[in-house]
Design goal:
- By secondary structure, the chain is an alpha+beta fold.
- The longest helix is centred in the N-terminal third of the chain and has 12 residues.
- The N and C termini lie far apart (31 Å).
């Protein structure tokens, strides 16, 4: 997935913020795997601040989020409360069916915004974004990734 396409889709669909050539880091030869790395984007800094190998634990956590989806979320707005966006590519597409929506998610973006429940962003096969509410706890993920420091 090219960053510019992700940026255009995210900004157009979510009206969250403009990533303007900040970039999710490109994978180095060492990081290239069957599944891409987990990345942490610092919204205020406007850049990726952490890239870590994507292991079974991250896969299990991301799948638990997707398994706890309760429905569509209202659109995010650029209110400066979102601190981090976490990108977790999935090793196997996740078959998502909820609220008359059916798709195979290949990656998930976790949005953490102050004073609001975390939300997930996934893209359908036509690269249309869907913002979703979910009930799974993200504490284990935050602890494992280490940002923000716990």
């Amino acid at each position: 997935m090219k960053l510019q396409k992700w940026i255009a889709a995210l900004c157009a669909a979510c009206s969250l913020f403009i990533f303007a050539s900040t970039g999710f880091a490109q994978e180095t030869a060492k990081e290239q795997q069957t599944v891409g790395p987990v990345q942490v984007f610092d919204v205020k800094a406007g850049k990726v601040v952490l890239t870590v190998p994507n292991d079974k634990d991250y896969q299990k956590l991301a799948n638990s989020w997707l398994g706890s989806i309760t429905g569509l979320a209202p659109q995010l707005t650029n209110d400066n409360t979102c601190t981090y966006v976490y990108r977790v590519p999935l090793a196997k597409p996740y078959k998502l069916s909820t609220n008359n929506i059916s798709l195979n998610a290949t990656e998930v973006f976790l949005f953490v915004c102050g004073g609001k429940a975390p939300q997930l962003l996934v893209f359908d096969e036509q690269r249309r974004p869907l913002l979703l509410l979910f009930t799974a706890d993200i504490a284990a993920f935050i602890k494992k990734v280490g940002i923000p420091a716990t």
